[in-house]
Amino acid sequence: MRDFFDNRMAEAPPDGVTEPMAALWWLGKGGWQTGSEWEKAHALCQGAEGETAYDRVHALAHWIEGDRSNSDYWYRRAGTSRRYEDPEKEARHILEQLTNQAADQAPTARP
């Protein structure tokens, strides 16, 4: 399977991902730095403040921005805390949790 964050040539996030996953993708596309991709990710996160998945990615965005106190605020709102000291590792951790959550919520086939 191709790495979700191996996206330097792609123009947009993969089809079918949730908005929080798309925000993570934009952060990765931007090289875990502020810039136009960070702005896209941040806008997606702000679109659903108060929803845990969005708030976790919002926390990561502010951490990348260098605003640790704001990042900590969003982690608290999401009911969690930073797990890693590297933004990419943290993003991979968040992505894994979002992927598992999406799988748990997927409708099951009926016989």
Give an account of the 3D structure.
The structure is a single chain. The chain contains five helices and no strands. The chain has helices at residues 19-29, 36-46, 52-65, 68-78, 87-105. The protein is globular. The N and C termini lie far apart (29 Å). The model has no long low-confidence stretch (mean pLDDT 89).
Write the layout of secondary structure elements.
Blueprint: H1 19-29, H2 36-46, H3 52-65, H4 68-78, H5 87-105
Helix pairs in contact: 1-2, 1-3, 1-5, 2-3, 3-4, 3-5
In short:
The chain contains 5 helices and no strands. The chain has helices spanning 19-29, 36-46, 52-65, 68-78, 87-105. The model has no long low-confidence stretch (mean pLDDT 89).
- State the shape: globular
Q: Alpha-carbon distance between the termini? A: 29 Å
How much helix, percentage-wise, in residues?
55-70%
- Rg on CA atoms, Å: 14 Å
Major sheet description = none
The count of β-strands is: 0
Briefly note the structural class of the backbone.
mainly alpha
Q: Percent of residues in beta strands?
A: under 5%
Listing every helix as H and every strand as E from the N terminus to the C terminus, the arrangement reads HHHHH
Mean pLDDT: 89
Alpha plus pi helix count:
5
Keywords:
111 residues; mainly alpha; 5 helices
